[in-house]
Amino acid sequence: MNAQDIMTRDVVTVTPDTPVPAIVRLLLARGISGVPVVDAEQKVVGLVSEGDLLRRAELGTEKRRGSWLSFFTGSSTLASDFVRAHGTLASDVMTRNVICIDVATPLPEIADLMEEKKIKRVPVLDNGRLVGLVSRANLLRAFASRLETADATAPATDAAIRERLLDALAHQSWSRRTENSVVVTHGVVHLWGLVGTPEESRALQLAAAEIPGVTAVQNHTIILSEEPYPIFPGSFGS
Length: 238
Fold this sequence. Notes:
- By secondary structure, this protein is an alpha/beta fold.
- Helix content is about 35%, strand content about 20%.
- It starts with a helix and ends in a 15-residue tail after the last strand.
């Protein structure tokens, strides 16, 4: 899936000349936390989010620096802070270096970008023009849709389930499964063997549960990081 498959197409926007009070009312009325700023050609020139409106003179929250710190802060930065706190237009308070994506950007790349840049939304462009917006909520809706349309085909055979699980585990760097560690009986996956951590054990269980046709997962793995080490009954002769 790509950005164009999940994006919100009817994007609420403002212009650089939109008054700040109007932006505040718009955010509250629409229940959104940010809005792109576009020019006459629908090109994104900025973005105003709740974070851009936190430091306001009206709230008494504008940045305040002591005289000593102000002495070492450039006049340009101080002036910029003043404009953000007292500005009356979108162009005064907006974030200008906006991170955007293309309509064909795959979902994994979008998720990586949001996580890396710590952003909640990203404008979607087509030939440089704004055509949509992808937010974290859009990703959650896509996740919910996948749950609703999960593979509903007839259960696979035990051999097919086992083969597919082993293939999936072979592509996971954390997995050290051998063929003898996985047994499938009547759609129930039994996991055996040693694992290093509880997280590895849980990851195996989740990987097995994702395979179409699996009806249950029985996790018999032994976690080496736990003390005392679990021991199978009868492991030692009497």
